[in-house]
Amino acid sequence: MEYSALLLILVLVSLVVEAQIPLQCANIETLTSRTCCPVPDLPDAGPCGANLGRGSCRPVAVPDSKFDAEQKDVRVNWPIQYFNSTCVCGERFGGVDCGECSYAYNDGGNCERKTVLPRKSVAELTDEDWREYVAVLLRAQAFPSRYMVVTVNFTTDYQTLVDSMTRPSVYHMFVWVHYTASNTPGINSMHDMAHQGPGFPTWHRLLILWFERELQVMLGDHLFRFHYWNWLDPTQRDVPFTPHRLGATVDTIVTGDLVDGNWSLICWFDKRNFTRPDNPVWPSYADYQFALSIKNYDVSPYNALVKCTEESYRSYMEGFLNERGADCGDDPMCSPIHNILGLGNLTARPTFLQTGVMGDGSASPNDPIFINHHTMVDCMLEEWIQKYQVGEEAYPTSRRIKYGHRATDYIVPFIPVYQQKEMLVSADNFGAFGTDCSVSATA
Questions:
Q1: Please, what sign has the CA dihedral across residues 165, 414, 57, 34?
Q2: Which residues pair with 150 in a beta bridge?
Q3: Is the Cα dihedral 383, 384, 386, 392 positive or negative?
Q4: Which residues form the Tyrosinase copper-binding domain (predicted)?
Q5: What is the pLDDT of residues 112-160, one digit of tens each?
Q6: In order of start, what are the domains of the chain with their CATH numbers?
Q7: pTM
């Protein structure tokens, strides 16, 4: 089934979306062997480029928790239900088969030079930059992804798995990745592996890096970069929202080049229109400065119940902690930005089908401002990391942390695999930001 058919499938509320499988491993032979160690398209490379010293095929080490057979949540101990061996690439190399450069050594050549391309504020982009960016987004909605989606519950009948696979567009895959990490597939309950836990900043960091790489490959341009939207600065809040950028909002309805280019939404119940509300209430620099004053990355109970009496940088940034000491969650940092763009004034929440898609956590990447928003959140994370000079050791290791968010959990549903704690290091390790990410300096 081609990617053009995915929109019809994914908008069905009852759809099971199970796994993201690289094209090279989306076949019966690979699934039967449970080994996703493809050979890169390089002379005499061998599996994972081992003959060239690029990587090796290794067993996946997962934490000591059992797969929940009753719920069939294949995200638990990802990716062990599908693959027990994957490629592990050397420092300079990356990709499913180690045939690409790593995020840090993305020099467009032989992966020999560490390259940092600083992200910029979207306020620095020219009109031509915006036109090119909108064209990239529209192309990504039509260009086939390098991954397949499994649309049935996991089974060892591998022919059934293969027959169920569909190939989405690059952009729709981006939406689906966020959607499936946020929802328990195939059952009537939810276990969020991207939010409400210590993995929130690290999961979204990898999402932005991964999607940025997918667009780089689509464009054949290793210099392509996402830029951050500094919504803390009142003069920059409206910058993305014009007809020739990410769309102007007139009576909550988004209009402009993006929508006129047949922008399509998936995994979203309200397909009637693409909306954003008017008259939002914004977080302030005071909120952000308070966040930077919190030295603990996260504290018990490591979820949305971390309230005002504890000090948790993650909880404050995600929107569950408030410096005012009461009414937690009204207007701290991250989640309210989704609410602002999806719900408008938080004191007058519209009904579900009147909300903009950014108000729906799992399907929110349908609105492309999600990209610039989470690049901003990642910029904030980077400033916190630099201030306290922390790394993987700052990620909590408590057994109370829910699965999917534990330090050594592999981030769902990505292949190649990365542990949550591996993302809690300076962004210089991923070729992003450099010394130009200092949000507080613009206050």
A1: negative
A2: 19
A3: negative
A4: 367-378
A5: 998 888 889 999 999 999 999 999 999 999 999 999 999 888 888 999 9
A6: 3-14+21-437 (1.10.1280.10)
A7: 0.90
